[in-house]
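Exercise 3.2. Students should predict the tertiary structure of the chain below and write it as structure tokens, then compare their answer with the key that follows.

Predict this chain's 3D structure.
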Amino acid sequence: MPLALLALAVGAFGIGTTEFVIMGLLPEIAADYGVTIPTAGLLVTGYALGVVLGAPLLTVLGNKVSRKRMLMLLMGLFVLGNVLSAVAPSFGLMLTGRVVASLAHGSFFGIGSVVAAELVAPDKKAGAIATMFTGLTVANIVGVPLGTFIGQAVGWRTTFAIVAALGVVGLFGIARLVPATPRPAGARLRRELTAFRNPQVLLAMAMTVLGFGGVFAAITYIAPMMTEVAGYSEGAVTWLLVLFGVGMFLGNLIGGRYADRALMPLLYVTLGGLATVLALFTVFAHQKVLAAIAILLVGALGFATVPPLQKRVLDQAHGAPTLASAVNIGAFNLGNALAAWLGGLVIASGFGYTSPNWVGAVLAAAALGLAFWSAALERRAPAASASPAETAAGADSAARIPVHH
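Answer key:
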């Protein structure tokens, strides 16, 4: 794999840490600002909605500069948002800092996915994308648990200050390791928008929203669920997040390995398994060992869907992948926002801290239904997913992409 993928993974590590560390610190932040746990959950929802907004907006603006420069600008915005979160004197400003940091998220992974895929041979694209996302999964094994421990020990503000420093490291890594490239040839908003005429692109994004939303329904409220229901101590949340991160890491490896070989069968297995585990998690959450196993499986099955769904969008978007790729990252976070909101709603309605697991199970099952529908449409009209003009544009684009072995 090209060394540039390491730089993308470093940036992904910083972004993954700030996205997920909030889960383990919700009780501390809620207590500090004097708000309820469901209200503190708005920090998850706000971040996710910021990704949804920032992904298409900043990707369109990024068409005016080279991809490397845009990635550097995005990391600078990420640093700014985390500094604001670290010093915010009120909950409103804390939420603002989260949104500012989140604006960089979707475009970074969207543009980064395109860059990663262009650096390798066509049959290794999913593996390259998975390599970049390894930074996100490693963040959940190292960055998130460590950030949770630091936040509980010396204060959550210190955690966000460290995350800002990680962003600076990511910025310098991109500047040093990602090769300089000219502004993408033929990058026009109208051309990028043509990808959304393909119903398979829209179905893949809908699967993204519902599938990964199922993961966030459970994980957003993992700290109160484990301490209040499973009976774990507050300190145990740290290693439970490590377990979730290990699951994400393994799932990313599985998704990257098999998405190039059997993309749709992989989605059937992972989405079906995710729906089942989330439904069982409602019961498992009352027993420590079973709860830990469920957390590992939710991470593995949930993140195994990321490389195949991202690759499916890139494949179906043909010659205009950049905006579609970024919007799909936004779709992951739209699912996160929807699930975090629904999870908080059922908790606030008195159904208990395990009730978000049922929300997640329903969302994952709906994503599985869309996967079968997408495959059925593809079997009926295998050539309908691309117009002749789009196919020609894709061939022309492929002819210009340098392949490095």
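Discussion points: The chain has one domain: 4-400. The chain is about 80% helix and 0% strand.
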